[in-house]
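Example record for the data management plan.
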Amino acid sequence: MNRFIWIGLGAILGANARYLVGVWAGSRFGADFPYGTLLVNITGSLLLGFLVTLSAGRLQLSPELRLFLAVGFFGSYTTFSSFAVESIFLFQDGGLGRGIFNILGNNLIGLMGALLGVYLARALG
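Corresponding structural encoding:
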């Protein structure tokens, strides 16, 4: 039962972090493109890649902390479900280019972020 509490606590923080990043990105860059979703997917991929790689080697995380961070926090912080819906809306409302840019930006840059996280974690030791 405790594992559900750890996941839930992480999810509360991750969802609120996602919200705050979205609000910030919307006020900073405008609301005509889902910049907040793009930003949380890139940063979430980077940080989760970093955390998972580091915890597989030299960083010892308790099972509770791993559930809290990897499943709870990053599970609710990243937004691929929103990404799918927003991409469809961009195709419908903004044309082919904006939809393709959203898909490529989230996927390619997100993958590069995860790769960078793995690289940075390995560079530490």
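Summary line stored alongside the record: The chain has five helices and no strands.
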